[in-house]
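INFO worker-7 received task bundle
INFO bundle size: 2
INFO processing item 0
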Amino acid sequence: MAAMNVNPKYKKQWSKLMFSFFDYLPMKYEANPREWQIRRLIWDFKDGKRSLQVAEIVARKIRETFGSMTEKIVFCCVPASSNEKNVKRYKDFSDEVCRLAGTINAFDHISVEGERLAVHEYNGTKTVKNAQVINFEEAFFKGTQVLIFDDVITRGFSYARFACALEAFGASVLGGFFLGRTLLK
């Protein structure tokens, strides 16, 4: 397998704080009862369920990690693939995390316009995929300190791409919290 040429800006994002609450074992692997509990929690969260339970553990970790600095932190979720999924997954969750942790909520300053076709080229091969269109209220992020949240991190490209976009608007990304980290065997 050829070495992948990775954007240096992504490497910078990956060197920041990256905390995951659980190890997530993909379905292609057999799981023990504890791993099944984690799968169900993550799947429920993605479906907009158990968001208050997850918000409590995330807010607790934010307060533990950042202390009195929490009131200056902007809490920002990597948007889901559509506006409907984004609202279902993150609206109440973001509200509750920010209420409990005392952080600033970025949810209303980012929108998902829908899906569009995108052409990607990798090693000379073009593929067409659905890609989301994310709109940022750029002025809101200028000069802020942002903590990013995403439900699952696998390799970290979505997180890094999102963090770079925020920094292009003048934000300083502190790092990311992730409900689950995919175990790659």
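INFO item 0 finished
INFO processing item 1
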Amino acid sequence: MTDHAPAIPPYWTRLGSFFLYPLSLEPLLACCGFGVLAGLASMFFVPANLVLWAVLLVATLRYGYKVLERTALGHLDDSQTLFDSAHGGKYLPYKQFVVIAVGLTICAYVASVAGPHAALVLLALFGLLLPANTMLLALTNELGESMSPPRLWALIRGIGMPYLGLCACLLLLSSGHGALFGLLASVVPAGLLGVLFGFLGGYFTIVMFRLMGYALYQYHGELGLAVDVGFERQATAIAPPDPVRQRAAQSAELLKEGRYDEAIAVARGDVVERPGDLSANLRLHRLLLAVPGQTQAMLAHARDWLPALTRVGQESYAIEVLEAIWQHQPDYQPAQAGAILPLATALLAARRGDGAARLIREFDRRFPGHADTPAIYLLGARLLIEHKRDEAQARRVLAALRQRYPESPAAAEAARLDELLDRLAAAAGGNPA
């Protein structure tokens, strides 16, 4: 993976997908096959039923190992698990039995020498190592290597603390089969209990092995595991193509080729399709601004789009659009009175006092009786103080505001601003005007 490769989502954020995976076509058919085999085993007597149960166990584990292996290699949308494997995995279930037998034998020996408590501690440690052993078996198909303490420790250290969470999830899943079977046994006909047992066993086995495979894929960089499908390709394969990005890329390519009219047509079509979308309108605005001969088209689009920007709180982009209009039409004023105050406030905050002053000039004459007039007066006083350093004129504006609109919130703010000017004048040793 490159430095800019997207991060693989952690396994704990994908638990739902692991439960859904066995319900896709091929795993579901496999689970149904396990159910049928278990149903047949429940119908026969010893020793035929024992043979069928053994075949079922081997078949379930063998399929689980193939799911684990191919998931670890990045085949998250795999549809060929049953017939495709890097090393076949034919004997992996038997090697798993050997590992379990060796572990239980060691625990029994420790129990005879050091007592049951030491054996229980060793058994718990064996349980913690079993997932790592299973993952190594799936990757290497080597019994000795999967039991090697250095290899086991390297895998656990590569995953880190999330390995303990993985073990906890696997422990819960291993008990889920029996718990769910117990819940459903009372409502399922007795003749189908064997089928249900086999189906649920296959289902939970596939979920567990899918989880282990995904954990290996998540940490394949730390583990030095070469994967077939990197997450860059994975994200591309999983996510549907984004038509918005496709059109943006198409427009950019047309610009590079000098096909300006076609690029503008693509951008304009995007705006027609998504008239309220910020990125589409911004792309069209900047394109019209950059292409020679498109001034009138830019002005027409900008004048229509500007009020919408102020309504959705995008004043920073509104300033960009407004200043682009002023470059070609210096006397332009928005026709909507409600757009003036937020735009002027944003211009003042951006330290563009001249633009704010131009915007609010003669607001009360252009929009007589408008509800924003007191706030515009207050903004004008702030402009006089902060940008013109004309406190005397600012006081006159504040006095007019308090006299004409005494009940407005702006009048109360004007009184506080007046008091602040008085304190500043007193501190400077002057007299209030």
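INFO item 1 finished
INFO post-check item 1: Residues 1-5, 83-88, 235-239 have pLDDT under 50 and may be disordered.
INFO post-check item 1: Residues 11-238 form one domain.
INFO worker-7 idle
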